[in-house]
Amino acid sequence: MDNSKEIWKDIQGYEGYYQVSNMGRVRSCDREIVFKDGRRRFYKGKLIRPVKTNSGYWQIRMKINEHVKHEYVHRLVAKTFIPNPDKLPEINHKDENRLNNRADNLEWIEHVANLNYGNRAKKFAISRGKKVGQFTKDGKLLHTYCSTREAGRRGYEQTSVSKCAIGKLKTYKGYVWKYI
C-alpha cells in the first residue's frame, strides 16, 4: 500500500482519541490520561487492528473512559471523507470487496441500488438460494428465478413463494411455485 498519499482525520465524536485515513485504516492518538488519584500516564497512539465480522466487514472497537463502541471501518471512512448531501443511507463498495475500505472505493447509495449493485444479487442467489420455478396450475413453466429472494424483488412476496415451494401453500397469486 502506498501510504504517501494517506490522509488522517479525527473521527467525529472521538476527536483527539481516534483517527481514520482515506486508505481505510484507523489509529488511536497519542494522549495523556489523568487518573482519579491525580496520576498521569502517557499513551502512544497505534494502529487499531480491525476484526472481520460474520458479514464480511472490518470492524473496530473504540473506547473513551468506560464507553465502548464498535464501528464498521467503511462507515467511518465514508462519514469522514465522502460528502453525503442527499443523506443517502448506505455505503457501497464499488469493487464489491467488503474489505477494501479506501475512500476512492466507497460511495453513498440508496438501499435498493445497493442490493442490486453489480453481481451482488446474482452471487447471493447462487451461494444462498435455490432456483424456484413459477408454473401455471396445469404445470407449464412460465419463469425461473435464481431464488425466492429474486422473485421477491420482482414483485412477489418472498415468504409466500417460499411457502409454496416447500408445500405449505398450494398456490400463490394463481401460480404454483416449486424448487427446481
Provide a quick synopsis of the model:
This is HNH nuclease domain-containing protein. One of its GO terms (molecular function) is hydrolase activity, acting on ester bonds. By secondary structure, this protein is α+β, with helices and mostly antiparallel strands.
What tags apply to this protein structure?
single chain; 180 residues; alpha+beta; Homing Intron 3 (I-Ppo) Encoded Endonuclease, Chain A; Arc Repressor Mutant, subunit A; 2 domains; 3-stranded antiparallel beta sheet; 5 helices; 21% helix; HNH_nuc
Can you characterise this structure?
The protein is an alpha+beta fold and 180 residues long. It has 2 domains: 3-115, Homing Intron 3 (I-Ppo) Encoded Endonuclease, Chain A (Alpha-Beta Complex), CATH 3.90.75.20; 126-179, Arc Repressor Mutant, subunit A. It has 5 helices and 13 strands. The protein has helices spanning 73-81, 111-115, 120-128, 148-153, 158-165, and strands at 8-10, 18-21, 26-28, 31-34, 40-43, 51-52, 58-64, 67-72, 90-93, 106-109, 132-135, 141-145, 176-179. A 3-stranded antiparallel sheet has the order 1-2-3, covered by helices on one side. The longest helix has 9 residues, at 73-81. The chain starts with 7 loop residues before the first strand and ends with a strand. The mean pLDDT is 90.
